[in-house]
Amino acid sequence: MNLKTLFLSSKKAKQINPLYLIGGHFLSLYLIIGFVLRIVLMAFSPADATYTAMGILRGLSIGFLSDLGMGLLLLVPLFVFYVGLNEYKYKKYAVISICLLLIAGLAYAFWPGSIFRQYGGGAPRIAQIFLGWKLLSFSLRAFIPRIRKTWRACTLYLTWGIYILLLFMVAAGEFFFWEEFGVRYNFIAVDYLVYTNEVIGNIMESYSIAPLMAVLLLTTLSLILAAVRKRRFQLEGNYSLRRFGFETLLAVVLVGASFGATSLTHNLDANNQYVTQIEQNGAYDFVRAFLNNKLEYDKFYTMLPPAQCEALYRQQTGLDANGTKQLSDGQGAEKCNIVLITVESLSADFLTRYGNKEGLTPYIDRLMAQSLVFDSLYACGNRTVRGLEALSLCVPPHAGESVIKQKNNRMGALSVGYQLRKLGYTTQFLYGGYSYFDNMGDYFSHNGYEVIDRSNIAKQNITFANIWGVCDEDIFNKGLEVFDANAKTGKPFFAQFMTTSNHRPYTYPTEKIHVEGNPHTRNAAVKYTDYAIGDFLNKAAKKPWFKNTVFIVIADHCASSAGKTSLPLEKYHIPCLIFSPGRIQPQTVSKVCSQIDIIPTLFTMLHLPAKVQFAGNDILSPNFKERAFLATYQDLGYYENHILTVLSPVRKVQQYAVSPLPDGTFEETLLKKQNIELTQKAVSFYQTVNK
To answer: Which residues, other chains included, contact 493 with Cβ-Cβ below 8 Å and sequence gap of 6+?
Structure first.
């Protein structure tokens, strides 16, 4: 088979309309790949996943319908391209009109007041390149007729190849995303698109991308070569106006039916969340998350009358009529230094104390024996920004995007940084990466903190770094340098670290710890993070400011949030300790509590005279009401008295009876009868926070 017979018509090969050849081949592949992918995802599901025969049948059958609908929707761009396969555009007046339109469009793209300039970034350049190319390529085809057929064939094969290659890339991406998060594409995938440098870098460092891409390219080429042995594109005379009208009408009907079917299959909910995820289509989930990345609470969630909501919220939080509360009378106030270490993805089950048998955290395990430890503390969410939001504002999570990522994120007196600055503290946020990620720099710098990130570390002081940032030792060493300078001012300081090493690709200075087998695993990264925390505290112990400092070690969220239900309790259980020799006595607290309660508890312990608007309360108080808050992007959970209340769009409320199991997990059984009191409590918290 030579290039001429490959790209142009062959007398022995059947001539087929390009729309049908590419569309039919892609759709059949899409359905096959979707079926195989579901089998693979079930085989690589998290350890707690279980599938019954009916669950598997449901996942595969509903999944097939979902893939069929999405596959047809994905052919819409191909149909638009098909419209251009006509000969009418090469008529004299059509050529002049199209060229004038392209010239006008290109001139507009260079105009300083164009809409492309308003989008900023690379949008103007992309528009200029695209319109310039369209003008050049159309002009060549219009004025050199003999190249049209070959040009069209090359364009069709390129389009075909792109369709198939993207299909394989998306499927491979779904597998890796499932392996990391235990779900199909969701708002996390959309959110990460904003930070292409970190995400692409993370992918390149975590996976063997070059060999994978080579395999995908070869597979794509092989499939196209196999398909064109007996079939070729019909390069001319593909449609008359009457035929095109019929095909357009058919396309509209198919798209409408496909959209309806796909929406329906994605609104079905199985009792097992893994089955719900398996039956969905990742590409559709991605688009839906992209289009619905903001949730207006009053439009999507159950509401209480404003007066009832406000009264109930104040009753539960201890706020007065002005929406404030005094955590301490200020008698015997200790304005000591506070260092808050927020550890990336440190699930409680990594620690020996909570059942781990691998000895991953020897330093933290020893430290717990000398600390105030909260054994039943739960993270507010499954993203870093959720943990930072909870610890810096002491309020339940917001619906949709974290307040850190929102435009209106200037929180004023609600911020911990603001409150401590009023008390004379130097307040700082230290992050090993670049703080533009997740909007951390903007948020903390406008809420009472000085931001110190990777850009503030001299190159000679960086011993190791990956795409996420410098290793934990380097940011801790930077912290020691900063704290020495702080101490010289005579003012107390509050500093919050956000670590990065316990994150895929799990790379770090491997010589610092001993690991059997592959050193680039989550467990190995946890072991290194534990080492770095121990190294930091050992060095800090030699500093003159150490005796006047309280250290808090807490996770931002768990390593995984996937489970049989949308909010599996064990996937939000995180460790937390407060350490200050001679000041805070070792103690174990078993009360169910939340990340939002840690700072209010510390303020009370130190008798800091702050008047705050925190929803969190002092865990050590005999009047503390045990409860926790757990949230995903859409589901907002409230856990009290062994009942988990979940608020979801659209005004949906479900409650689960939660029972502990011997393996440390929990069984969540859907309640048939709703506990109205707990529902109202949950609504009062989330409705107030999401005003």
So the answer is: 337, 338, 425, 426, 427, 428, 483, 486, 487
For residue 679, indicate whether it is catalytic.
Answer: no
The pLDDT value given to residue 356: 93
Binding-site annotation: residue ranges for substrate: 503
Span 261-310, pLDDT tens digits:
888 887 787 778 788 889 989 888 888 777 665 667 887 789 999 999 99
502: helix, coil or strand? coil
Q: Is the dihedral of CA 506, 509, 514, 517 positive or negative?
A: positive
Distance between CA atoms of residues 612 and 394, nearest Å: 10
Check residue 235 and give its pLDDT.
76
Q: Which amino acid is at 499?
A: T
Q: Given this model, what pLDDT does residue 33 score?
A: 95
- Listed residue (344, 27, 10, 8) closest to 164, CA to CA: 27
* Residue pair 300/399 in contact by the 8 Å Cβ criterion: yes
What's the mean pLDDT in 407-423?
90
Q: How far is the C-alpha of 369 from the C-alpha of 381, rounded, in Å?
A: 27
Q: Quickly name the fold that domain 328-625 has.
A: Alkaline Phosphatase, subunit A (3.40.720)
- DSSP 8-state class, residue 272: S
Cβ neighbours around 640 below 10 Å, total: 17
Name the band, by pLDDT with cuts 50, 70 and 90, for residue 207: low
- Specify the 3-state DSSP secondary structure of 622: coil
Q: What is the pLDDT of residue 4?
A: 52
Rounded distance between C-alpha atoms, residue 374 and residue 619, angstroms: 9
* Binding-site residue set for Mn(2+): 344, 384, 556-557
Which residue among 384, 426, 427, 499 is the active-site one? 384
| Residue spans of beta strands (DSSP E) within 641-686 | 643-648, 652-660, 666-670
DSSP 8-state assignment for residue 293: -
Residues belonging to the binding site are 344, 384, 503, 556-557
Closest CA to 515 of 529, 494, 503: 529
Q: Summarize the chain as % helix, strand, coil (round to 5).
A: 50, 15, 35
Say how far apart CA 597 and CA 581 lie, in whole Å: 22
Residue range(s) occupied by CATH 3.40.720.10 in the chain: 328-625
- What mean pLDDT do residues 511-517 have? 92
Indicate the SS3 state at residue 120.
coil
- Return the residue matching tokens 């994978």: 212
Tokens of 316: 């539960």
